[in-house]
Amino acid sequence: MTLVTISIWDYIDKFKNHCYKSKNWKVYEGEDLIQVKNKFHKFVWIQHVRPFTFESMITNPLCAIREGVSYRTVRISFMAWVLPQPPAAAVLRLFEENPDISKWVALYDLSRISRDLPACSKLNETKSVVFQEFERFLSNRCGIELEPLLESRTTDHQREQTDGV
């Protein structure tokens, strides 16, 4: 018997194909970028997200896209970080310390896939139709359920504050 492992890249690639065929959204070849009307939705897949990398990308949300033989730069409207490992605590603190980030940046921790656990985690408070569709796609087509990422961290933080009083 041969085990087939699906990588996070495969999920994103299948999702982009779904968006193009089922939703008729503009999917940019060679970029993990989907355009719906005048909004650009960017997927970032990275093995280990470092706080400096994360912060520099969200403070300068630009992306060069190819159009024929030339390129143009667009401002990213929504950005989703899709991670094969849990995010660093420092990255999560950035969300806690700067709540406005949550309005346009989502975080998906898909690390549990490799351990065959039933649910993965998400932090998505954006109004991105693409990210909402990504969550439905993961659930309906891939059998991956998503639970809130910061729920346990927030509860632990509240417990620490009341214990310290």
How large is the count of helical segments?
5
Rg, Cα atoms, Å: 17 Å
* Biggest sheet record: 7 strands, mixed
Give the class from helix and strand content and strand pairing: alpha/beta
Helix content, binned percent: 25-40%
Strand order within the widest beta sheet: 1-2-3-6-7-8-9
Mean pLDDT over all positions:
85
Low-confidence runs (pLDDT<50, min 5 residues)? 1-5, 152-165
Helix and strand element order:
HEEEHEEEHEEHEH
How many angstroms separate the termini? 57 Å
Strand content bin = 25-35%
Q: Count the domains.
A: 1
Overall description:
The protein is built from 5 helices and 9 strands. By secondary structure, it is an alpha/beta fold. The protein has one domain (8-163). Strands 1-2-3-6-7-8-9 form a 7-stranded mixed beta sheet, covered by helices on one side. A two-stranded antiparallel sheet has the order 4-5. The protein is globular. Residues 1-5 and 152-165 have low confidence and may be disordered.
Short description:
With 165 residues, the chain is α/β, with parallel strands linked by helices. It has helices at 8-23, 51-59, 89-97, 129-142, 151-163, and strands spanning 26-28, 33-36, 39-45, 62-67, 70-75, 78-83, 105-109, 119-123, 145-148. It has one domain.
Q: Would you spell out the secondary-structure blueprint of this structure?
A:
Elements: H1 8-23, E1 26-28, E2 33-36, E3 39-45, H2 51-59, E4 62-67, E5 70-75, E6 78-83, H3 89-97, E7 105-109, E8 119-123, H4 129-142, E9 145-148, H5 151-163
